[in-house]
């Protein structure tokens, strides 16, 4: 799927800073085991308030016609788990009631475009849930994921 659904707009988080508090709460709620108080993730380090949009980390958000955030994805200098594979795409999340409408694919495409704009030649990510989405876009499996992540694989894309 190469075109964005007509009813969403994909924006850089830096250009819509008003959605940052919502995004932070959503990510904390959705990935509590990672970003919650007992998890290894640090949401303030992953999504720092001083993001410039012209370097890593940077995040994109999909906004619907009402202005609601319905998806997100981010680009990081490296993964916290696969230090040899960088830069890294993470934080791909689509609102439960908006899944299977092409928003995830549109976000992956937008992350690829943003990485190209930032001068990146090769990108990596790890996924199981979005495997079909990224494989359809030409990403190639290059390594097994973390054992804790079950059947996830690391994928790479030459830009
Ligand atoms: C994984 C995730 C990001 C996918 O987002 P999404 O918006 O549903 O992705 P898409 O709609 O682009 O594609 C998903 C499926 O819907 C299908 N689809 C897309 N548009 C469609 C449409 N209009 N009608 C029917 N199906 C459609 C795609 O072909 C794809 O099918 P497949 O996976 O069976 O091959 C989403 O399920 C999610 O947020 N999951 C929880 C968080 C997570 O696991 N993130 C991934 C971590 S890397």
Q: What is the fold's blueprint, element by element?
A:
Layout: E1 8-12, H1 20-30, H2 32-35, H3 43-46, E2 58-64, E3 69-76, E4 88-94, H4 103-117, E5 122-127, H5 131-136, E6 140-144, E7 153-158
Parallel strand pairs: 4-5
Antiparallel strand pairs: 1-2, 2-3, 3-4, 5-7, 6-7
The chain binds coenzyme A.
Coenzyme A binds near residues 103, 104, 130 and 132.
Attribute tags:
binds coenzyme A, alpha+beta, seven-stranded mixed beta sheet, 5 helices, 25% helix, Aminopeptidase, 159 residues
Descriptive notes:
- The protein has 159 residues and is an alpha+beta fold.
- It has helices at residues 20-30, 32-35, 43-46, 103-117, 131-136, and strands spanning 8-12, 58-64, 69-76, 88-94, 122-127, 140-144, 153-158.
- It has a seven-stranded mixed beta sheet with strand order 1-2-3-4-5-7-6, sandwiched between helices.
- It binds coenzyme A.
- The site of coenzyme A (COA) has 15 residues, from β4, α4 and α5.
Q: Can you identify the CATH superfamily?
A: Gcn5-related N-acetyltransferase (GNAT)
| Share of residues in helices | 25-40%
Ligands bound to this protein structure: coenzyme A
Stretches with pLDDT under 50, minimum 5 residues? none
Largest sheet, strands/sense/barrel: 7 strands, mixed
Radius of gyration using CA atoms only: 15 Å
* Secondary-structure element string: EHHHEEEHEHEE
CATH class division: Alpha Beta
Spatial separation of the terminal alpha carbons? 17 Å
Oligomeric description of these chains = single chain
How many domains make up the 3D coordinates?
Answer: 1
Mean pLDDT: 92
Shape: globular
Q: Beta-strand level of the residues, as a percent range?
A: 25-35%
Number of E-type strands: 7
Indicate the CATH architecture: 3-Layer(aba) Sandwich
Which class of secondary structure composition applies to the elements? alpha+beta
User: What is the topology, as strand order, of the major beta sheet?
Assistant: 1-2-3-4-5-7-6
CATH fold annotation: Aminopeptidase
Number of helices: 5
């Amino acid at each position: 799927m190469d075109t964005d659904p007509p009813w969403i707009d994909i924006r850089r988080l830096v250009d819509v800073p008003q959605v940052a508090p919502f995004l932070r709460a959503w990510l904390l709620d959705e990935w509590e085991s990672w970003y919650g108080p007992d998890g290894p993730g640090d949401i303030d380090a992953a999504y720092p308030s001083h993001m410039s949009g012209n370097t890593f980390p940077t995040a994109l958000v999909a906004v619907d016609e009402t202005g609601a955030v319905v998806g997100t994805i981010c680009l990081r200098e490296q993964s916290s788990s696969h230090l040899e594979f960088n830069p890294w795409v993470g934080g791909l999340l689509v609102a439960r009631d908006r899944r299977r409408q092409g928003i995830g694919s549109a976000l992956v495409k937008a992350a690829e475009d943003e990485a190209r704009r930032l001068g990146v030649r090769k990108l990596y990510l790890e996924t199981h849930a979005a495997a079909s989405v990224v494989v359809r876009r030409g990403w190639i499996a290059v390594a097994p994921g973390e054992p804790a992540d079950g059947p996830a694989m690391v994928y790479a894309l030459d830009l």
